[in-house]
Specification:
Layout (H helix, E strand, L loop, with lengths): L1 E5 L16 E3 L2 E5 L2 E7 L5 E5 L3 E5 L3 H10 L4
Antiparallel strand pairs: 1-2, 1-6, 3-4, 4-5
């Protein structure tokens, strides 16, 4: 399963500004007015963006997937 690791936050108003180092779900890629983005889910369960330069796409598997949802309190 693909996921995103947040490396930095270029905009302090983004939802992930205090989540540097967190691994979050990967929902896709796109381009919007801010440039290239990844789609993810914030901890409230809403679909939200991460600037592509602020994260890296990684592979996780098995038990790591469950830990991802537990760690971030995502609705399942």
């Amino acid at each position: 399963m693909k996921a995103l690791k947040i490396l930095k936050c270029s905009d302090p108003l983004m939802w992930y500004s205090e989540r540097i180092g967190a691994i979050v779900p990967f929902l896709g890629e796109d381009v919007d007015y801010k440039g290239p983005i990844y789609w993810s889910r914030d901890s409230g369960g809403y679909k939200n963006i991460i600037l592509k330069g602020d994260a890296e796409l990684i592979d996780i598997e098995g038990n790591e997937v469950n830990q991802l949802f537990d760690q971030n309190n995502y609705p399942q």
